[in-house]
Records
---
Amino acid sequence: AQTVTQSQPEMSVQEAETVTLSCTYDTSESNYYLFWYKQPPSRQMILVIRQEAYKQQNATENRFSVNFQKAAKSFSLKISDSQLGDTAMYFCASRGGGATNKLIFGTGTLLAVQP
Amino acid sequence: NAGVTQTPKFQVLKTGQSMTLQCAQDMNHEYMSWYRQDPGMGLRLIHYSVGAGITDQGEVPNGYNVSRSTTEDFPLRLLSAAPSQTSVYFCASSYTFWTGKETQYFGPGTRLLVL
């Protein structure tokens, strides 16, 4: 069974600063994928970044990067140069491969970017 | 492409009423799924489909039925609504599912209130 844990219900950061959101996971899959999704007040779910577990290199997408520690089963999201538009709920998720793979979400971290 | 569309955006039901939440995608995606989002619980998988005519249960299937007669449509039926089904419902799709890495595209969500 897969589980995803986000231990920070809420976080706050000043505009232009850097913030890191934590996520730990557990899975019995040998090949799996990890995701960070953003949910702004509009409620739309938006993919922020994706990491393939077999790749050692950490994924980056512009101001967003991850710190993937496979042995520790940790997958944190770093947001650099925070912007007001980054204010949202952020969900960590994992998904295995195969016919019955399912996307399992954590409980989310509400990030507020302060001006 | 319209992406993933959901109707209605908001619905109020009385206990015991039935209704169907509609979901459609125009991207020729094989995989479609339904999630519910409740405060403090992230998104939980209700049902999913890996192709037309094929559906299976997720984490929280009780009280919900699905069918997939076409690639494009994946309706979610509540046969006898209960207050515990008050939630925000998201439909999502991805091109396929075998490797797990495919990006899931989410619809805008349906807010359901059961009185």
---
Amino acid sequence: DAGITQSPRHKVTETGTPVTLRCHQTENHRYMYWYRQDPGHGLRLIHYSYGVKDTDKGEVSDGYSVSRSKTEDFLLTLESATSSQTSVYFCAISESDGEGTQYFGPGTRLLVL
Amino acid sequence: RKEVEQDPGPFNVPEGATVAFNCTYSNSASQSFFWYRQDCRKEPKLLMSVYSSGNEDGRFTAQLNRASQYISLLIRDSKLSDSATYLCVVNPYNQGGKLIFGQGTELSVKP
């Protein structure tokens, strides 16, 4: 299995609080992605990174920001959590920008009350 | 219209059955295609890539029909361990590796 960890694995928070999720990889892959998965929608891309300090928006980026200061870490921040951000968040990595496959972390279950 | 569409199922089949899933995609310029498998409350994992010529991996066969813009996955001799959700995934052209996922098809294999 690819070396990807996510922390925390579960979190309960209240509306309006900031939340940061961490994705850590030991594979030295260039590309990293944050997805959310909700019933009826499948996986949707929030943000992705194509290198240190290089990030771009995905399909559902509103309300989220990211940072990548090191190759191995990709942080996802919910500036002010809302109930609509209750979801399962997956981080993924890939070596190339499309020809290769993506390897996923175990996911973080976030509940916003 | 969703970019990648799948029948969510569930498909309930007995052990040993053959089952097929289809998936359609809207972007005719899409470059590459994959099937991922996701077990309950787990992360998705690559099952197989899909090539124009079709490809087979043991009991699994994937095919691509570019003219009709659909992808198929055939599972022969179903096992209990095949129970999972199967995600159809498309890499659109020139999108920097941003994969588009279908919502998945649930398969339940019964004894």
